[in-house]
Design a protein that fits this description.
single chain, alpha/beta, 9-stranded mixed beta sheet, 18 helices, 17% strand
Length: 479
């Protein structure tokens, strides 16, 4: 995507253009700054107040908590590049473009992105409460499968077939019909935070550049979502699997450390069988147990399979203990799209009490290497710190969000399943109320920092807790 002399992927003043949104009389250029923080610059035809960049007073920036000195050089470079094309560049920006053509225009650059919120009308964006059945296939525990976590499916299905068979199964088709209907979906539990927070709608969907087959699969997925097609001709954009149930930690709320085993490790043949999906795949998300405890997965990440599909992002949810600088270097040719680190604590004492694994100082060294790789090479593309909300850590909820903010990474909160070790906040009304207050404050802070997508997910967790308190439900999930 171009805006006069500026293209997605261009370097400007030490930042990188990651998105360009066009509209009549206005253009928005989103630049990822050196620290990984995105910032939106607006170019408007009508100058009601001069912007701070002398080369082009029509260029301003959207509200941000970042100090001006941190992005002044980027804004000045952007103004200098756009000034010779002003104001004709906005006439070009006003030219109508269909959303499929806008996706095709991303070309084969996997760093080029567009948000569907910039391409589709509001009615279309709100048409589905959740897009997962058209975009995502998840292999769960004990051969459960579906478009999402089995804990939030009303009736999880069992199956051990190949991905395409499961993708076109009656179970997935039922989810698509339910989410296309005007009533609440019977396939989903009302306690699903993503459904409550409406965080997985078209409004939050980002499309990326890549090979022609990948672009076509994204276009097909969006078309199927808009049409409510229960049997789309597409393949999954996201595939989620558990590499092994084994974990080297024994977290308070999770039984993997006690009961997990490498005996159920996914074999190399499983990953090799994904080859037909790779041309249209956006993300391979690997969970556990501790996924990197799997020797097979570690060799897959270091091997040739994913090198054949450089547009595919690999997402990991890990405790970080295996993600040493040496191992991280072995995966440098893999596009690590998102690494979620299950920290569950803001302090060393709470980390030790909740996670019962390596000392936080050891994991902190791994985090520093991960952050350095992100800042230097954008690999991983994004990092999230995750906390399962428990009686033993809810007092650190806001401090945990502050830790993520200090490291300039995303933050995620999750409600626990079950009440292992009597740790669940869902069995303690006072802890639930404390969590709602903390989550509400964190969501407000995220919105003030321009992280609306993260805030929606925090809203979802708070919404589930608020509704359970209202109804007097003091018991563990799932129910």
């Amino acid at each position: 995507m171009r805006l006069g002399p500026i293209s997605v992927g261009d370097d400007v003043g030490g930042g990188r253009v990651v998105a360009i949104a066009r509209a009549a009389g206005e253009a928005i250029v989103t630049v990822e700054l050196a620290g990984g923080q995105p910032l939106a610059f607006a170019l408007t035809r009508t100058v009601t107040r001069r912007g701070p960049f002398a080369a082009l007073p029509a260029l301003t920036y959207r509200a941000t908590a970042l100090p001006f000195a941190g992005f002044a050089a980027v804004g000045a470079a952007l103004a200098t590049r756009l000034a010779p094309a002003w104001p004709a560049v906005l006439d070009e920006a006003a030219a109508p473009t269909s959303w499929p053509d806008a996706i095709r225009a991303l070309g084969d650059d996997p760093w080029a992105t567009r948000a569907l919120v910039d391409l589709l009308p509001a009615e279309a964006l709100a048409r589905r409460a959740c897009v997962a059945p058209w975009t995502r296939l998840e292999y769960g525990r004990r051969d459960q499968y579906g478009p999402c976590c089995a804990d939030f499916q009303a009736a999880p299905a069992l199956g051990h077939a190949d991905p395409l068979t499961l993708w076109r199964s009656p179970h997935l088709r039922e989810f698509r019909r339910a989410l296309a209907a005007p009533r609440p979906p019977s396939t989903c539990r009302a306690t699903c935070p993503r459904l409550v927070g409406r965080s997985d709608t078209l409004a939050g969907m980002i499309v990326r550049g890549g090979p022609p087959a990948f672009l076509a699969n994204q276009i097909g997925a969006v078309t199927a979502i808009l049409d409510g097609d229960d049997d789309p001709p597409t393949t999954p954009l996201e595939l989620v699997c558990s590499a092994t149930s084994y974990c080297n930690y024994d977290c308070l709320m999770c039984s993997h450390g006690e009961l997990g085993s490498l005996a159920d490790e996914l074999p190399a043949a499983f990953y090799a069988a994904l080859a037909p999906l790779l041309p249209g795949l956006n993300r391979l998300e690997v969970l556990g147990g501790e996924p990197l405890a799997s020797p097979v997965l570690r060799e897959v990440l270091a091997g040739p399979l994913l090198a054949t599909a450089p547009h595919v992002e690999v997402a990991l949810t890990t405790n970080g203990s295996y993600l040493t600088p040496t191992e991280l270097a072995r995966y440098r040719h893999v596009r690590l799209g998102h690494v979620t680190v299950s920290l569950n604590a803001a302090t060393a004492a709470t980390y030790a009490a909740v996670n019962r694994g390596l000392p936080l100082a050891r994991v902190r060294a791994h985090l520093d290497a991960l952050l350095a790789a992100h800042r230097a090479h954008r690999n991983p593309v994004a990092i999230t710190y995750s906390m399962v909300l428990l009686r033993g850590n809810v007092h650190e909820l806001e401090a945990f969000a502050a830790l993520a903010e200090a490291d300039d990474v995303a933050v995620r909160f999750m409600l626990p399943m079950g009440d292992r070790n009597h740790a669940s906040i869902l069995c303690d009304p006072a802890a639930m109320r404390a969590a709602v207050a903390g989550l509400t404050a964190v969501a407000a802070r995220l919105r003030a920092r321009g992280r609306a997508g993260e805030a929606l997910r925090v809203d979802g967790e708070a919404g589930v807790l608020t509704e359970r308190l209202r109804r007097g439900l003091v018991r563990a999930l799932p129910d």
